[in-house]
Amino acid sequence: MTLPFDPIAEAARQWGLRWDGVRAMHAVTSLMRVQQLVIGRLDALLKPHGLTFARYEALVLLTFSSRGSLPLGKMGERLQVHPTSVTSIVRRLEASSLVVRRKHPDDARAVLAEITDEGRALVEAATRDLTAADFGLGALDDDQLAAVSNLLTPVRRAAGDF
After folding, report:
1. What is the pLDDT of residues 47-75, one digit of tens each?
2. The whole model's pTM is what?
3. I need a labelling partner for 18 at 20 to 30 A (CA). Which of 71, 74, 85, 151 fits?
4. Is domain 51-133 in CATH 2.10.260.10, yes or no?
């Protein structure tokens, strides 16, 4: 159902009658709504592959690694998620035969996640679907996509993302 008005603009109008910070409130509410829309679209594209976006990101990270494997701790750092989340992601990928867990050859305390051939094939197929759908951002042209990335970089930097 399409509304006959922009509910975020109306919320901002109402907000401004009571409090300051209308522009920031409008921006963050818009950002959060777009996140919901994009995640929903990405999950719909990945569901036929048996993946969530988090599992897809983990497989891509392993694909990018020179040996096709990484310690779980390193995966958590690079994916910027809690170690418990990495363990859960890797367990689900392992249950689907997309990764295997191995002992680290140089560190007895560490566990490696290694992408399987099946995992590599799935990454390729899922990536084709995501890129064909412009990762859910098809309403934006290349200049707008670059502007969004550039606009959000200072927020990520200020938060200590990098």
Report:
1. 999 999 999 999 999 999 999 999 999 99
2. 0.89
3. 151
4. no
Q: Where are the domains of the chain?
A: 1-41, 51-133
Helix then strand then coil, in percent of the chain rounded to 5, is 65, 10, 25
| 71: helix, strand or coil | strand
What is the C-alpha radius of gyration for the chain, rounded to an integer number of angstroms? 20
Other CB atoms within 10 Å distance of the CB of residue 117 = 10
Q: What is the pLDDT of residue 159?
A: 95
Residue 79: which residues within 8 A CB-CB, separation 6 or more? 54, 57, 58, 61, 86
